Give the backbone structure.
Amino acid sequence: MTRKRFDEMGCSVACALNEVGDWWSLLVVKQAMLGTRRFVDFQHNLGIAKNILCNRLTRLVDNGVMVRVDVGEHGKRYEYRLTDKGRDLFTVVTALRQWSERWNGEKDSMQLVDRQTGEPLAPVTVQNQQGQTLTVRDVRFVDEDGKPLEEAG
Amino acid sequence: MTRKRFDEMGCSVACALNEVGDWWSLLVVKQAMLGTRRFVDFQHNLGIAKNILCNRLTRLVDNGVMVRVDVGEHGKRYEYRLTDKGRDLFTVVTALRQWSERWNGEKDSMQLVDRQTGEPLAPVTVQNQQGQTLTVRDVRFVDEDGKPLEEAG
DNA sequence: CCAGAAAGGTTGCATAACGAAACCAAATAA
DNA sequence: TTATTTGGTTTCGTTATGCAACCTTTCTGG
């Protein structure tokens, strides 16, 4: 009767959520993107309990999203850093942030800007090969043979 | 000692996760994007317990992500459909799906294609105003006055 | 070098969330 | 009319989360 995990559902989204869909996980990743690396800093910046933070960091490390780097002179001082896989979640986190801002208004005093130009980012969108923006209604779900997937039944 | 929610953290990402970050929530949204509308269909397609599904649907409706539409002749037959706000999560779900496929391989027999051309979608990316792709290292986090945010301390 | 603080946990306990199955009323199908 | 489907709610056992206390190793100040 353990909580059902999403790894054996044959679905990429489920698989992703299995790795970063726990309560707090994506916030830890977001915080790491802001530059936080130390255990105590995550703790204070997020207001998360130590045991939960410990669990989430371990889990993220196990899933290859972060790495624990030994920075103490004689060990026992660590930094948690994003891996390439973890940094690649930037799209997801940014999409979530923008979605929230669009529908719930600015909840964040912080803004994201292009380091080069200082301009705000463009909205993250789903696009086709030609760069045209697509909504969920502009796509089809097909199986491996290209046959349309009829669902909902 | 109730579970800490993310609505009062002054962070857009946290606010978003507060609405769709519960276990199962985003999978329900994804399933809705595949065309599922009925309670029983969500239940069977996802393999979720009825009480949890009930809770998540209610929560999604409360948060304006879905609506419950009465489709029975005399009431008591419902459909759950995505609102505009819900459909706007397409970017998030697609980014998650692609992230999983990039780092964990194809876990999905299903593919997403442009309805017009039949071609697979382009990778979702964060871009600046000029359409150039940005990584997390190409952005800066600034406060309302444009001053850089020094974090992690 | 020594005392004390800080980092990075672990443990125990109370409460909330989750999962499975049973149960139930209204609406529909046979 | 009876059976079945839909869309739940209830109950109960297990797991997850939150908080505080504690613990060991490493740094810091003197």
